Amino acid sequence: MRIQRIRAVARKEFIHVFRDIRSLIMGIAIPMMLLFLFGYALTLDVDNVPLMVWDQSGTPASRDLVSRFSGSRYFSLTGYATDYREIERAIDRRDALMAIVIPRGFAENLRAGRPVRVQAVVDGSDSNTATTALGYAEFITAGYSSGIALEQSRRATTDLPRPPLSLEPRVWFNADLVSRNAIVPGLIAVIMMVIAALLTSLTVAREWETGTMEQLISTPLTGAELIVGKLVPYFCIGLFDLVVSLLAGRFIFQVPMRGERPLLLATAILFLLVALALGVFISIVGKSQFAASQFAMVATLLPAFLLSGFVFPIANMPLPLQAITHAIPARYFVTILRGLYLKGVGLTVLAGDILFLAVFGALVFALAVLKFRKRIG
Question: For 33-82, what is each residue's pLDDT tens digit?
C-alpha cells in the first residue's frame, strides 16, 4: 500500500464529510446524545419504591416496623390504607408499588413470642422491580425480627446466645452496587459499535450509487488502499467520540477508573477499528446506502445491546445464544471495559479478549478487501 494514494482518498473523504452536515451530526452529536440519554435514564437501581401501609395494629411496635421501611432509601411511604380496596386502587393508579399489611394483634403476639405473619402485596406487572422490592422488604423485616429476638433473649437471660452462622457481606469492585458503574462502560461499547459501523456502512455504497466508483476503479488504487483511505476520517470522528465518552464516564458519571489508562485507550482504538472495518464490509456487500445502513443497524445494534452482556447476563441465556455471543465483538469490549474500569485488571487477564478483537478485525478487513476486488472484477 502506498501512503500517497491512501492520503488522497482520505482527503477526498474528509472533504465529503465536512460538506455533508448530516454525516457530522450522525458522527458526533448522536453518540453524545445517546451517551447522556442512556447514562442518566438507564438504571437498574430500585430506590424510593412507593409504599402503602395498612396498619391494623396501630401500636408502637407496628409503627416501629413501618419506620424501618420509610426510613430506608429503598421505600417512600405514600400513605395509609384501611382495607384491600384502597391498596388495589393505589396500585392500579401506580401511587404504590408495594403495600405492607400489618395484622391485628401484632404487638401482643410479638410480646408472647408467637410468630407473626406480615403481608407484602406487590405489583407484579414490573417483575424485575417487584422482585428487587421484595428482597428489600425481606431484608428489613429480617433485621426487625433479629432485633426483637435479641431483645427477648436479653430479658430472659444475661447470657445472650450467639448465632451459629453470620454473614459478613463484602462487595468488591462496586461497593455501593451502583448500576451506573456497570452501565456506562457497557454503553460506551454499544454506542461505539453502532455509530462506527453505521458511519462506514455508507462509504462504498455511496460511491456505487453516485456513479463515482467507476472513476476510482480506473485509478491505480488497490482495494486495500481505498478501504484504508476511506476509514481515516471516520476513525478520527470515532476517536473524538471515544475520548469524549471516556472523559464523560470518568468526570460526569463518576465511574471509577482503576485500570491502566494507556491499555484502555489502546483497546478502545482496536475496538473502533474492528467496528469501522465491519461497517466497510457491510457497505461493500450492500447494494445501496439504505440497505447498507439498515443492515448495519440490525447487525450491530441488536447484538451489541442484547447479546454482549451489557444488560442481560450471558450466563443466564440459553446455551445456543451463549454460543452466538462469542461472535459478537461488543461482548469482549464490554468485558474489557468493565475489567479496566471497575476491577483494575491488566493485560494478563484481558489478553484473550484483546486477541479475539484483533483477529476479528483482521478477518473482517481481509473479507472486505476480498469482496471489493470481486466487485471490481
Answer: 888 887 777 776 777 889 999 999 889 999 999 999 988 888 999 999 99
Domains of the chain in start order, with CATH, are 3-42+181-372 (no CATH), 49-155 (3.40.1710.10)
Strand 119-122's sheet: what is its strand order? Answer: 75-80, 49-55, 98-102, 119-122
C-alpha cell at 268: 478502545
Phi-psi region of 344 (alpha: psi -120 to 50; beta: other; left: phi over 0): left
From first CA to last CA, the distance across the chain in angstroms is 19
349, three cell numbers: 487477564
Question: How many CA atoms lie within 13 Å of 163's alpha carbon, on the beta-carbon side?
Answer: 8
> Distance of CA 251 to CAs 244, 245, 255, 256, 314, Å?
10, 10, 8, 9, 29
Which DSSP string do the residues of 232-297 spell out, in sequence order?
HHHHHHHHHHHHHHHHHHHHTS-----S-HHHHHHHHHHHHHHHHHHHHHHHHH-SSHHHHHHHHH
User: Grid cell 435514564 — which residue?
Assistant: 41
Q: What is the pLDDT of residues 321-336, one digit of tens each?
A: 899 998 889 999 999 9
Residues facing 119 on adjacent strands: 101
